[in-house]
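EI: anyone free to look at a 242-residue chain?
SC: sure, send it
EI:
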Amino acid sequence: MDSRLTGRTSGILKASIALIAALIWLCPAPDACRAQGTPSIEVDKKELDLGVIYRGGSAEGDFVIRNVGSDTLAIKNVRSSCGCTAAIVDKNNLGPNEQTKLKARFSSGNYKGTVSKKIFVYSNDPQNAIIALEVKAEVKVDLDVSPMMIYFSGLKAGDRVSRLISLKNVSDSTITIQEISSTVPDIKIDLSKMKIAPGEESSLRLVVDKLEKDTKLTGSLTIRTTSRQEKITVQIYGGKIR
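SC: here you go
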């Protein structure tokens, strides 16, 4: 026999033996290896539209996550792109063909207009380790309050300070201001009118008659109305008083 052919056959035989040994080392029990599979994540939709929300309100909806693979799907983590959006999954480990709900809750806060936030789902799916989902909402207002944040700065003891807030009715019905309260006790509140017709404005003045060194001006102002925005919150921030 040709020595070159014999050498080539010997080399192939050695390579085959090495491959078989490697496979045995990786999987000493072939039946168990055949039983192993791969998890695969599937979500019923990539976008959740919560529709219309009035500023200050919240809305929630569900995504459905299914394991369409052949091994256990582990949902390792779920996080959102904003503190205004909460995401909670009912079950973290899903066997083949099992499913669970991911509940998403959006709090509109001081947003206005079209708002879009992301939710990220982390799993052990080797093909889709991270899936990005989207939550959308249209935030509307009946009473347009401006500004939504009040800053007191450049303050001196003994000074009288005031800030003005505009309340404009952008709805098609008369809005009544039912109550205004503040967590800052030194602030006096003066409202120009309680009933605001469509298209009209009312002025809300915040006044501190005399600043003291220990006057605290950080807190919030709550406006309760008859509109679809039942409660409106204005944040108040006070700087150091010299």
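EI: The longest strand covers residues 113-123.
SC: 👍
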